[in-house]
Amino acid sequence: MQTTFVVLGGTGDLTGRLLLPGLAELFTADARARDGDVALLAVSQQDWSDEEYRDWARARLAEHAGHVAEDVRDALVGRLAHQQGDVTAATDLRKALDRAAGRPVVYLALPNTVFLGTLQALTEVDLPEGTTIGVEKPFGRDQADARELNAVLHRLVPEERVFRTDHFLAMQTVLNLLGLRFANRLFEPVWNAGHIERVEIVFDETLGLEGRAGYYDTAGALRDMLQNHLLQQLALIAMEPPQAIDGASLSARKADVLRAVRSPADMARDTVRGRYTAGTVDGRALPDYTSEEGVDPARETETYAEYTVTIDNWRWSGVPFRLRTGKALGTDRQEIAIWFKPVPHLAFGSRGQAEPDVLRMRFDPDHISLEINLNGADDPFELERRSLDIDLPPTPLSAYGLLLAEMLGGERTLSISDVEAEESWRIVEPILAAWSAGEVPLLDYPAGSAGPAAG
Ligand SMILES: NC(=O)C1=CN([C@@H]2O[C@H](COP(=O)(O)OP(=O)(O)OC[C@H]3O[C@@H](n4cnc5c(N)ncnc54)[C@H](OP(=O)(O)O)[C@@H]3O)[C@@H](O)[C@H]2O)C=CC1
Ligand SMILES: O=C1O[C@H](COP(=O)(O)O)[C@@H](O)[C@H](O)[C@H]1O
């Protein structure tokens, strides 16, 4: 059956850098998609003809999908079209949908501030039977906004036809949490407070603002990354074993964890917020965040967010989960690190100091390592630190390629549910309030440094 991705925001950075390359990968993997089953109609306010849009898309694909064969990229370009319009106006949306052949997947690749107006406008349009609606992250600006978005979505299509995107769920390292935990006897028996000391979920970026002030300066690190990508990883790490790897089971188990997350008891102790000042990252000079074009310093937007989470349930009682993310940091440390407790009795006495076992799941390149203590090579009774390492092989589909494939197939394994989206806001809302009330200082850190020191 023919499907048209109606991409609202089809001229944006996300579309050019990630969605179009993902679709090109899908065209490589799925001959039916390439040979006519799938098309894309981009909607934006630009006064562009189809041909002008194709030129733009061809250049984006050359830049970001060089790994896809040129004839496949050309086949995709031939399936693209552009419709000018304001996505918050029902008449414009109707015109766009009239041009969409077959079943539409309406994808909101828009700033989160436009989501509600767009969905409200869609209620005035007769959506064809079988329409799917995809929504980018962050899902709204706060819990009330997320509730309202969910209410309007449910008036438009059933929850099974809503796809709330979090592209981290489709990343190989994150997906491997499922394989590692639930397809091996080894880990699950020790995956609890009895054996795990602490967990870190870290996504440090060397990238700065990269011209995204229009969106980022009203979002900040907490809304941009922690509220969604980091809490989703936490939910997968901490959830109970699902009955099956499908949308319903995963969402239910993740929602249980999110409900058990306690809001910070002491904001100044449990959270850190920071903002980068001028500095050098990888030899590249970055200006002070407040001097970046489009930034309003009065907003006091954070570019670094940290939150040590407590989970109030039997499995995780007393285990801190430290979530940390920031821009313009010195290194791209991007990993999940699980620190195990020491052995109850170390028989080696003074002949070796056992460090805790650490399981690390790293991003880009995707890699899993298990750091353990073994007998030494020189002295067999002396302990030595070794690491079991696995490089995860490259996958044919990037995260966005996989998400598009899910939407095409009507699957929801990697979608976030309505409940999860609202619970995630319930968790971060008290932090947003405390930060904007000045209860936690906004710490400076030079670009290229290790981040702000907790006060
Ligand atoms: N960029 C990224 O790396 C990532 C982005 N995301 C998410 O994707 C979404 C889009 O981000 P991004 O692409 O970076 O943003 P951009 O600002 O680059 O693009 C926004 C797009 O929305 C369109 N748009 C905005 N308002 C309207 C309107 N009223 N009517 C019609 N079109 C409109 C713009 O078109 P026009 O200019 O013509 O108004 C443009 O095509 C956000 O929710 C973001 O959080 C998620 C993961 C990564
Ligand atoms: O959603 C986002 O994710 C990116 C990090 O993900 P990556 O796939 O680009 O590594 C982050 O830079 C961006 O600020 C955020 O909006």
TrEMBL record:
Residues that hold NADP(+) according to the record: 86-87, 137
Keywords linked to the UniProt accession: Carbohydrate metabolism, Glucose metabolism, NADP, Oxidoreductase
HAMAP family: G6PD (MF_00966)
Domain Glucose-6-phosphate dehydrogenase NAD-binding: 6-176
A cellular component term, taken from the record's GO annotations: cytosol
The name this protein goes by in its record: Glucose-6-phosphate 1-dehydrogenase
Binding sites annotated in the UniProt record for substrate: 167, 205, 224, 327
